[in-house]
Amino acid sequence: DGGITQSPKYLFRKEGQNVTLSCEQNLNHDAMYWYRQDPGQGLRLIYYSQIVNDFQKGDIAEGYSVSREKKESFPLTVTSAQKNPTAFYLCASTPLIDHSGNTIYFGEGSWLTVV
Amino acid sequence: GQNIDQPTEMTATEGAIVQINCTYQTSGFNGLFWYQQHAGEAPTFLSYNVLDGLEEKGRFSSFLSRSKGYSYLLLKELQMKDSASYLCAAMDSNYQLIWGAGTKLIIKP
């Protein structure tokens, strides 16, 4: 079955450490997204990519980095520059030309905690 | 700027009806989405409206008025499992989703 796989589900980061969240999809979707969600809040866009080897900053890109070397993969690195990274992270993908209805697929989410 | 407003929290009784309102301001408009999200899980799709009017889907209905920048999600015959957060999201002219903060719905027996 096609879907989007996000890992790990839980991740702990020490001070000054970079960590990477994985996001893989086999839906042949062009666009992929990373969102951050804090408790009681909506989703805030970190980065998005509409094509391989190209990505754009979202509203809260500082302290994060991404790459899009393959269509299927869009990993997110939370760098040591992100001072308050504890949050729930969601990866999503959509087909580029069909934005109607139920075409947004989400990964299961990753909880990142600073220890 | 772009903005989505929805109530922070609502309480309703099992078996009753509840309406969750959402107002939006976006640069261009390509549709309004409603998602249900249980704590610690990904959002799940409920509805999509791009034309004015009411869309009914079982116990859930969604309404859109583009001229007023307004939508609501109507939940009928509430069940305890409907306790969740409900996220409103509007798609702008660049096909980017602008998300509301979500409405936490508490269902009481």
Outline the structure in words:
Helix content of chain A is 0%, strand content 49%. Chain A is built from no helices and 11 strands. Chain A is mostly beta strands. In chain A, the strands form 2 sheets. In chain A, strands 2, 4, 5, 6, 9, 10 and 11 form a 7-stranded mixed sheet that branches. In chain A, strands 1-3-8-7 form a 4-stranded antiparallel sheet, with no helix packed on it. Chain B is mainly β. Chain B contains no helices and 11 strands. In chain B, the strands form 2 sheets. In chain B, strands 2, 4, 5, 9, 10 and 11 form a 6-stranded mixed sheet that branches. In chain B, a hairpin with a 6-residue loop joins strand 4 and strand 5. The radius of gyration of chain B is 13 Å and the shape is globular. The termini of chain B are far apart. Chains A and B meet through strand 5 of A and strand 9 of B.
Condensed summary:
The complex is a heterodimer of chains A (115) and B (109). Chain A is mainly β.
Key terms for this structure?
heterodimer, A: 115 residues, mainly beta, 7-stranded mixed β-sheet, 4-stranded antiparallel β-sheet, 0% helix, globular, B: 109 residues, 6-stranded mixed β-sheet, 5-stranded antiparallel β-sheet, 11 strands
